[in-house]
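fwd from M.: "can u put these together and see what the complex looks like"

so here's what she sent:
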Amino acid sequence: MNVISRIDNHVRAYLGLLLAAVAFISINIFSGEALNGVRVDLTERSLFTISNSTKKVLTSIDEPILMRFFFSKSVGESNPDLATHFERVHGLLKQYVALSDGKIRLELHQPSPYSTDEDKALAYGLSGVATTAAGEPGYFGLAALNSTDDQAVIPFFSLERESFLEYDLTKVVHTLVNPVKKIVGVISTLPVHGRHAPPYGTTPRWPIMGQLDTLFDIHALNAEIRVIPDDVDLLLLIQPTRLTRETLYAVEQFVLRGGRVLIFADPFSEAQSITARSGREHGNDNINLLLSRWGVVMTPDKVAADIDAARRINMPVNGRLQVLDYVVWLSLRPKHFNRKDLVTAEMSRINVATPGILELTRLPKTTVTPLMTTGERTMKIPVSKVAVANPDAIALFRDFKSENKPHMIAARITGNVRSAFADTPPPGAAPQLKKNHLVRSEKPIDVIVVADADMLHEKFWADIRVEGDQRVPTPFANNADFLVNALDTLAGGEELLGLRARRESSRPFELVNEIRRKAERRYRSKERDLIDRINQTQDEVDALVAREGASVGGDVLSTKERTRIDSLRREIVSMRRELRGVQHALREDIEQLDATLKFLNIGAMPILLALLSLVGILVLRVRRKAVA
Amino acid sequence: MRNIRIIAKRELKSYFATPVAFVFIVIFLALTGAFAFYMGGFFTRGQADLEPFFAYHPWLYLLFIPAISMRLWAEERKSGTIENLMTLPISTSEAVIGKFLAAWLFSGISLALTFPIWITVNVLGEPDNGVILASYAGSLLMAGAFLSIGSCLSALTKNQVIAFISAATVCFLFTMSGLDLVLNFFRLWAPDILVDTVASFSFLTHFNAVTKGVIEANDLVFFMSLIVFWLFANIVVVELRKAR
């Protein structure tokens, strides 16, 4: 009896366990399917939730879109991180399908080597990655088509672009919904389109222009153009120095007719010195001719320096590479941006270099909205101090004196304006413009002016990786997003604005940087002092020693002079020691902080707990004695 | 319900009756801190987030959680107090759940006492505290999952050492289930969908996802269903042994 009931119990137990295991597995399979996308997003900027901008784009779809999603199993097997990424992308795409009200159809293809799926993937231009030791390619990309055979492709969902995932996917949809791109006419004195000029060498197209390609049709315009072509929807002026009066007139009349323009004008363009144009370009007086009628001027020959926003860079000083804060290269953060304007609302970081300063003029009744401003602790520095081959960054830092006034670096200008040419267009102007000369704007203008052109150069916003013949940028700042956003708002296509720049840029240890900066200020001036004194003293010694060496017979140095040499030498030794001490002190504060934190986090709690438990034990013992 | 609370309280009190609990917490805190600073390079990294802190939790739990779970049942069976427990007017389920909750609470307390590093990272910079909150939640869930496994295995043996080692091993398998080591075994005989499911059982995959700042329903369902399953198994095992 007992044996049977025991067996019975065991059998029941095992059956129960088996059922439980099956239930466990099924629940997880089920939730994997049904609950995909249900989540709680605790990140500060809701990085993992679908934004309203995407929802708007999805509802704006008018004709069906087919999305072919390619993922080779071998990719997931060789790299578990990509397998997780696949789940995320797949989940997001399914959400898009759900939100699109049936307008998006999703097909999942899993290409294995030599399959038709692989051929399809290659035809769309997807990039294969080697997955096995044999080097067989696996694919992880997306090709989307609309009913008019326009294509938008994501060649590979790389992990680096993980935080841009929603933006990339929505951009694909947006491109298919709005296949006709606005035409942007670019007048630039910087070689943004790339240059094939043998004397100067060939430089490639600037990566930032590549960021515009999916949204805009870029037309490079001659810098001496006399009339803006009719098909141009927007104008982009990059470093418009030395424009002729006729070109300025053409630009102005374009604006007065309601055309939108984005201007990047720089009092000193580092990019121009990088790309080695002959002659120095500075002085933007002629663009000021137009700007002043619109409400701002760029302060001539001055750049803005900001000690709090200064970027930390490696710079050669006295032949050695040193790390220091360069006060005219600014790394602007959210507090410097206008959070209410769509262009800058979501920006995390924009790097500018030797930016100019925009000042209001009192004349016209336009509305000037600042988009980017410096912090409070700023200083106006003459261009001459930075427009040299090796600017003295240390001196700029050391001699920095805050004027306690923030400066405007970028602004949006709206309102009605009058022509800078009053009733008389310049003589060489295009005849059709002269005939229809406008004295005042037909409707309120919408112009964005940025007092820096260097921010467009890739060294200020992305790391460039060369993949085959492509230069792939991985952004570390939102400069490109600013450019695209600005053009987008001027063009009127605002859906994608909320998506750009939602990426988290890095969150550095502000406290450590503060300590480092303070220590550096003390250290740099002391170092300069000591180095100067050491050099002076050394010169004195050299002079005295030279006299001794120069004399032949007779006129040997007196003992007084000899003792002087010795004491000077001793002085140098002690100053050198002091110098080393100062150099040590720089790191000391930070190392002290490190040690303190290590103690607090590793040792403090245990010690506290040990003390508490000792106290607890003693209290208990006392109580027990009291009872006894 | 009331019984569960009583048992849990009794169990938790017994933890602190000996200095073992303090020693455990002290070593846990010291190790999590040390790993974060020395192996994770928390300070030298210069980034205001606790990723180097949480990255080591799965591995530290492999060591610490079985140490808690091993004495849940093995000791009672060895010292015979399990008979005492079973004569009380409580059901097996209540006993199992009560003990589990006590152990989970204890690990929760240990985790909570790591708050100095949260303060530290906020003093040093501006971290995303939502992400940190999610990470703590994920760590607590994972501890619960480890505990449920360890508790069941501890009921299978009288010997605490065996309970410890077997718990550590099974938890290790679950942690690593996303990698080839485990999957290749399943690929030999199981259909694709099963292999995928096993891969999705990896603690690491779910934990890494949660520490990014998002708690997916999938992750919650995974951890909770796992805990429920192992607690059920635990109850079955204790019942079986009781019947003997």
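replying to her w this: The CA atoms of residues 334 and 348 of chain A lie 5 Å apart.
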